[in-house]
Protein 1
Amino acid sequence: MNDPSARDAGRRVLLVEDDAVIGEATAAHLARDGFEVAWHTDGLEAWDAWRAADPPFDLVVSDVVLPGLDGASLTRRIRETDAVPVVLVSARTDSLDVVGGLEAGADDYVTKPFDVQVLRARLRNALRRAGDRGPAGGVVPAGEASPTDGTETFGDLVLDRRAVQLRRGEEVLALTPTEMRLFLELAEEPGRVLSRRALLERVWGYGDAEDEDHLVTVHVQRLRAKVGAEHVETVRGFGYRLLR
Amino acid sequence: MTRARGAGRTRTGGGLRARIAAVVILVVLAAVAGLGVAVHLLVLREQVDTARRAAADRMAAALDVRAATGLLSFDAREDDPAVPAELRDAVRGDGARATLVTGGSVRTVWAAGRSGDVVLSTRTRLVPGEGTLAQVDRALLLAGVVVVLLAGLVGWVTAGRLARRLRRAAETARTVASGGDPASLRRVVGDRRDEVGALAEAVDAMAGRLAERVRAEQRFTADVAHDLRTPVTGLLTAAELLEPSRAAELVRDRARALAALVEELLEVARLDGGDEQALVEQVDLGEVVRRVVRRGVASGELPAEAVTVSSDGPALVATDARRVDRVVSNLVRNALRHGAAPVEVAQRGSVVEVRDHGPGFDEPLLRDGPQRLRHDRADAGGHGLGLVIAAGQAGVLGARLELDNAPGGGARARLLLPATPPGAADVPPDAVPHDEVTDGSRARERTGRRP
């Protein structure tokens, strides 16, 4: 776990970037980090590659503005069947682009011009969240005494920390790893307000230097849409809390 | 918004109005006075003439009576020694009757005539100030005063209307000039077709053209920054692939600097666009400020010993921490680049002050506020966008950014955050949810809650 490149070795990345230099250089960086990279310059081609991939990709890194199919639409199509981490690369300043991508289900994004170190950190965090989700690496937060059967209830929701599953009755809610991580952080102490800043640090692993306007807002919206708006309360000016 | 300038705005007083009213009064006063004097003189002459005619008639009658009866009548005297020599000579010379008026304010009307060797004369006292003339004078004076007052009033009101239109136009022009709402002077001065209207239209046209030019420049900046973004990202990403060497280090360093400049340009373009919104949260302002410095030191950008942070205790402020961060970090970097260490960052309540010990802000900066890309400073080591961004972000926060020079020397920038940030007026007073975030007593004061 300590050597990231060893951990990432053999992981398959779908890179979608239409700029030749950025695409080639990013692919080279990812390859250097041990990823197996499939680079496409067209959104539709990338979608075909995604569908044909066997074994499936572990990570998607996509530009937002693309020929064929834009990044947000590509993300939406992928999300219909899969919770794979998607990190968007946005070249546009207007945040509508970014919000659209996040609403489509992207986990995170970086803005051009980006520093390779930043992209690397974002990808690693996205992969870590996805990795946390697997049954083998399931998280039981330290210091949190779970009930004997390992489940907690929040109204009509049942959280099974061991299986990392959120159920409503018999139905298992399809949360992406990032949404799950967000729910887990809020469930740490129901009723307690977590600020946007705290969630950025805990869920996305953002450091002191990094801040972002839309990531938390849009993810909370997405989480609400899936678990029911009544469970996650916005405390204006302070943050969010989970209601039992 | 930013006000680099101190107080001391020039105000338009009532100068124009008072002057116009005074001129009107003076002109009317002169006219009334001239007319009054003329009327007075005419009436006086008429009065004297009447008195002369009456005296002459009486003298004629007295002469007739004397010739017929030898008696004196009509107050006539024989050979009165008081008769002016001039009159006596005239009467003796050609034997006719004559009249003469002597004296100033009190006049004497003489009439004389010869009857044989005897000179008959009468004298009548005439005081012009009495009777009709006095009444005429009083009437003239009264009418004059009324007319002057009326004219003055009309002048004052008319001039006031003109002055008010001009003053409103000036105020609007000043608001537009200081970056306020673009308003039409034409609308402010009304739609009368006169010189003021023409001036207003001319100024409107000028303002419109200038605004258009500024917008074009802003668009150009934004487009350039957008277009630079992709190649700069490529450059940056590719530069990171270079094998470690001094050359690679230099290329990477410059590529990062270029990327930073592009990001700053984009930030300026976003701020120019005017649709940036603050994302308001309750934050500990002291912690936000400490984080800026901590991060700068950790990244090696700020020399650890050059920047000191002080705080007067935890201060919960409803603001957008990310934007405060942008303002403070730009101020600190600007202080290190153009000023000199030590840079003191102090947070007092909702005010953050950044002070350095360099030469201070120069006069044009204090006068005009931060301008983009100024290169007139001898020590300009970088592109001057930092203060522009700081001012722009302060504007989004609804805060004021005050720039001046500290009494002991050195530049001083103060960010004054508003009690109520933009868009946060609807925060419910019971929005204080948890002990951890409500620890500062200020939060309770702010929300009106009792501890």
Protein 2
Amino acid sequence: MAKMNYKKRFSDLEKRMVTSPDGEEFEVDPMKDYFSDARPKVHPPSKITPLENFMNWCRAESIYILGFGTGCGAIEMRPLMSPMYDAFRFGIHWRPTPRQSTVFVIGGYASVKTIKRIVRSYEQMQGPKWVIGLCSCTINGGMYWDSYNTVNRLDHYIPVDVYITGCMPRPEALLDGFTVLKKRIKEGRGEGSNEYAENFDWYKANQKKIIKSWDMPDYNW
Amino acid sequence: MADFDYMKIVYAALTIFLTINYGLILQGIIGKIYARVGKRMGIRIFQPYVNLIRQWATRTSISHGVMYYLGPVFRFSGGAGILIFLPIIYGAPIFSSFSFAGDLVLISYFMFLGTLGMALGGGESGHPYAALGVSRGLSQVTMAEIPMIMAVYSIAVQYHSLNITEIVAAQQGSFLNWTLFTNPIATAAAMLAFLGSMMRSPFDVVLAPQEIPIGPPTEYQSQFLAMLMTNRTIFPVAKTILFVNFFFGGVALYDNYLLTFLVFFLKTFLVYMWSVFVGLSFPRFRVDHSIRWFLKYPMLIGLISIIFVNIRY
């Protein structure tokens, strides 16, 4: 079913033979050209401990957040940029593209439609990368516990480093969450992207259970 | 090659290293100034260092082919190229490494090289809108370059030289010998063009968050981005030193080294601050606005400066 859907919707993404202006024939596979379906690899931390500690300190003190608000909690991120909370003084920045970000703040409930975008964005981020689950909805579904279109536990789909409870948590709570995340990274416990690579099949199976129209490669980066 | 002084390579590397550090500190200070104007505490002064090291410390990276690799390299060589052919401190052998007779022409090329590298690299990233973003950025930078080149030609005619070291030498003695006072029209044209190449408001729409997702750096990450960030620390400093050399008498070597560096920091910082003052005071131009603006006043002033210099010298 999903396969048919995908074929119908993306017929121009199918593998085909193309003739170049010189008359040369070659094969074009747009899905292979634009995405890589290679499985993610585990990138272990450096063996040189002082170097790794220093790098972890740098990673923790320079946090690039993906500017992608996925739920109602995303509104709590905006005050952090304002003079009142000013997250920049803690080395927290916002980036517009997943390629350059390291922290993904899931702002509240993840609906079935959003989880697909969350997975795609998460996979496009470069490791090591971390996830903060904001609001109670990311922990157990919160007030959407038995909803028809909301995911209950976020860490069944992507590895989560820090949860922030509340509905909704105040911006101070989010700042505190960043402090906890920093501590985690500095201790060398922020290995979420490696966890994802190790348990890739389990995460994929969970994701496919939820996302019915799977019209993308298994690992799209 | 027999008489080539191999120490020059070491000096050039030292120049680039010191400039990266100066650029990073300057970025921190400017970031702090921007924040204080916005009533924020702002980033920590050492934040740019951490950001840069953090980019290098990324474990994974994705490449899209040869040009994708070469884009940041071109960009870096554009910034580094200006630096090593520039007499940073006039009279000091360490900081005027590869200065030669026609370096003014070469540096004009280097100023553009980085942007072209970015265009090639962005095109290879497979992003459908990269070419659009590049062409918008390129057209703005090109328009800023026109008054700049007019001003540069004007002072080349004035000093009868295409060698920056000679241009700096001609301005020594008194501050009244600076191009600022001997040729104020060219200085005005160049200082307006300077705003266009510093990538600050009103001419920073090509790097605005809305523009980036359709622009070339979208795909750049990890060490590629670190390379681009390194160039972004070098390039404004190199450009500022270039302007200090052309219009504000350069930095001469005094007997007291501390005084020399003090003058260097003061001059470069104040010239850099010109773009910050304007950036903090004025809102953004759209690309089409800025192109029209550059073709109006700065180019007119540049034309007048060329006429002026041809009549007078």
